[in-house]
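[SOLVED] Need 3D model of a two-part complex

Original post:
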Amino acid sequence: MSAREFEQSQTVRSVETRSGSAENLRINLKALHLACGFIMATLAILLISSLSVVAGQSAIVLAIFNFFFVVTTFALEGSLVVKSSMLLAGNGIFLLLNHALSYLLSGGQSALYASVDIFLSSLINLVFIVSFWSVSLTILAKSRKSA
Amino acid sequence: MGKWHLIEIILELIFFFFAGMISMYLVRHFVFTLTVLRIHPSKLCGEEISSESQLPSVSIMIPAHNEERVISRTLRRMTELEYPREKLQIIVIDDASTDDTGYMMSRFGEKDEMFEVLHRAKEEGGNGKAAALNAGLKLARNEIVICFDADYYPQVDIIRKLTEPFHNPRVGLVQGRVTVLNEPHNLVTRLVALERVGGYRVDQQARESLQLIPQFGGTVGGIRRELLISLGGWSESILAEDTDLTFRVALAGFRISYVNSAECYEESVEDLHAYWRQRYRWARGHMQCAFKHSRAVLTSRQLTFREKIDGILLLNLYFMPVVALLLWITFIPLFLLGSSQSSSMASAIVPVPLYSFVGNFAPFFEIGVGSYLDGRSRAQWLMSLLVFLFLYNIPICTKALIDLLASKALRKKNVRWDKTVHSGNGNSYIMN
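Solution:
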């Protein structure tokens, strides 16, 4: 191998090592973000459950929201602070929504109230999850661009 | 056990069966999304390893029926493609057009010998894309056949990108990515653009990464000419001739590859009426393929277990809006019967179809992740509105199924090809 070829092979190896370590760093960072997200989501669910402010289907929806949010958002590139703030804000808004809804629907025991409860809660939960998640992505994308 | 109680149990079983079917798709798309999240963006750029001499010869086919508003743009783009001219043959098929499409094609043919123009008379043409492509195939003489629709505007290096996977002899079919050109035009085009992001950036890419069966979309894709001829060309009796070809190629033991970096821009439908016509054709064609190929997929020795599972899910995709409708219909008597189990489960399960299928049967998180990975920051706001397209797809798919079953019962073989009309509004986005 000539000196020039050796030099070229060393440069290629150095570039490969650097890109490999950048890839490792990226994977580690993603894992760290996911771990932080799961810890925060678990704490939020435990805290809300212990306060006994949500029960039954709402608790299930809250768990679904947290799971989806962490898995699909914390794995994306972007600031951990923005992601965490959005997760906490999501839990807070869900709590307020749920409280308002149970207050509004607490007036009756009839079948009509029960059906309204089931369908309206489902619809509101769906709209909340999709809308909040999409707004969070928009904010995260904007923060990434500005960074 | 009372009669009503028995009815309740049967209805509950039906309810949970439908919910389970829909949930399978939810899990599938969740796996797709996680798969794409794991891929580094640099791996999607496509490696180019071929030297000029290694490039295969290509026949490009562009069928067109009354496309005078868009055809010139597409043909001009063909002259700009970065691919050795001696290895290119461009076959443009005027499928019995009654406007100036044929004249425009002829002008390009006179100016540039790379173009070969095939005019089909009214008596033989106008019977759909598959028939036009089969007529064009008789003129094709190169190794790879690549198709573009008349309204498509490809990247200049797209042919190199699309032919790269063919260096693997196991690859029989290659699909590129479709992106909406006229996205800012109105709300419908914006929502269709989001559907496309979920469908290609996440769905197709995940199928490629997981070694499943990426779907050939009938355009922005290539196939080995010999393979296509051995399979008998495109099926003229099936409205989704692309899906049909996908499964015939897969069942013949060839791999289908998806190249995300091979981008092509399409002019999307611009109103709900055109959307209905296009999706009705897709839905009915897909259902025809499900009836034709489901059994063969399950019993195939060429396909792996997970290819079979995903193949079946892909084939039966357009039945799902009908299943969602049945799920809701089943819930009503259950609710009136006071079924405690299903009532309590309903608030968790009823939204599942909506979670699963906002948009082009892609869940919201799949579309959101796709658009984020594409670097979009504003499009996500519209994701909640995709639910309206899903609700719109319920009557479309239900009608498609009813019509298909009726035509099967009446043994009608001829199906009418409903052409998508292109306005040419996409031209302004290219000019700017």
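Edit: Chain A has a mean pLDDT of 76.
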